[in-house]
Design brief:
Blueprint (H helix, E strand, L loop, with lengths): L1 H20 L3 H8 L4 E12 L5 E13 L4 E5 L7 E10 L2 E11 L5 E10 L5 E12 L2 E13 L1
Length: about 150
Amino acid sequence: MKRTKKLLSVMAIALVAASVFLLSPSQVANASKASSVVCTIDMVVESINNSGVVVGTEIYSKQFELVDGDVFSDDFSTRTRFKFFDASLTKQNGESTVSVDWFADVTVFNSVDFTSSVVLGKGQKIGKTVGTHTMYAGSTSTRTSFALVCEEQ
């Protein structure tokens, strides 16, 4: 009898401990629906000659999805040029921050390295950043334009 009571009390303690660590079905459903952020990056790099004529255009467009702590990487290098795109998502204090880094070896002598981020504040579901940068080398130039749009799902 004493042994049965001991066994029952151990089982009761184990059951209480297990219930503390187990998730309810609704908690499991909510955990599996962790919010993600879907983004689209559009990059245009134009090589411009000394007469102002665009002599080369490189376009990069990619849609990707991230969850907190995720990293998205795209190596789109060719046999002669290094080209990389990386993105990550961090969530802190109700804000989601998508950070991107884009590198492309675009001509014999020039490469473009671009870093930016979009912050989705508390309650904000869509964010966007755009920009243009022109680099001059003698009488030629390289113009880089970008748009990064992110939407929390």
